[in-house]
Amino acid sequence: MATWAIGDIQGCFDEFEALLRAIDFRADRDRLWLVGDLVNRGPQSLEVLRFVRALGDTAITVLGNHDLHLLAIAAGQGQIKRGDTLQSVLDAPDRDALLDWLRARPLFHFDASLGAAMVHAALAPGWGIADAMARASEVETALRQGSDAYFRHMYGETPHRWDDALCGAQRLRVITDYLTRVRFCRTDGTYDMRAKGPPGTQPDGFLPWYDLPARASAGTPIVFGHWSAAGVIARDDVYALDTGCVWGRQLSALSLDEWRWVSVDCARHGRDHG
């Protein structure tokens, strides 16, 4: 049995199938970790959702910001944006089953047997693995118990830093920001989501979230996506998997057993970063 982590698919189903062939994936033998953003900007979001849902427990998927965007639109709390390619999902006869399945996905995953974790974007600097699991569980509960209220407050201007004293909608929003949207932080955990370029282009005082000193999650391998501008990052405890498939670059898989990479080339579908 092999376990493969795969970067942001974003509706690029043909490339996803090509990558599964390249790694010789077999659903009766292997497992997939998918780092989120299954949908949007690529042309076949519906096909991706149907395929991954049909894999059942063979595929573990964490939610990304584009997945949450789709769920917010479906809940009547978001609007289609320029460049979105979500209408096929919203119009599908099986949309409710697909969206219910997507809403039930986690925001963070840890496998004790592999000693590795997965998130779409980032962890707050003060969160260890157990903290990240607990914080993600708060959002997962809100999604499953009353998603309309959650989506009404999912975006906001402040605060932009974790504090244990946060409560209600602000607490859930900040947790969601770290797990699905953040790239750069200050040492106190303050984040700036306007900065989307590669490491080294951030505002003064900010660092890539994984480079913060005394990061509590350091030492545990974490695979993540979301940051196509960063390219491949492969260190002892952080692995960036978003290699820009939707922008015409590559879709990549990382073996969590052998720590080797396999990539396939992609057609360009997206028009702007985010």
Query: Averaged pLDDT, please?
Result: 94
| Highest CATH level, the class | Alpha Beta
Distance between the termini: 35 Å
Instruction: Give me the number of helical elements.
Output: 7
State the domain count: 1
Percentage of helical residues?
Answer: 25-40%
**Content of β-strand:** 15-25%
Architecture, CATH level 2?
4-Layer Sandwich
- Number of E-type strands: 12
Helices and strands, in order, run as EHEHEHHHEEHHEEEEEEE
**The named CATH superfamily:** Metallo-dependent phosphatases
Largest sheet: 5 strands, mixed
Strand order of the largest sheet: 3-2-1-11-12
- From the 3D structure, determine the CATH topology: Purple Acid Phosphatase, chain A, domain 2
Task: Describe the model.
This protein has 274 residues and is α/β, with parallel strands linked by helices. It has a single domain, classed as Purple Acid Phosphatase, chain A, domain 2 (4-Layer Sandwich). The protein has helices spanning 13-22, 45-54, 65-74, 87-90, 95-103, 129-152, 168-180; strands at 3-6, 31-34, 59-61, 108-111, 116-119, 184-185, 207-208, 222-224, 233-234, 238-240, 250-255, 261-265. The strands form three sheets. A five-stranded mixed sheet has the order 3-2-1-11-12, with helices on one face. Strand 9 (233-234) and strand 10 form a beta hairpin. Helix 6 (129-152) packs across helix 7.
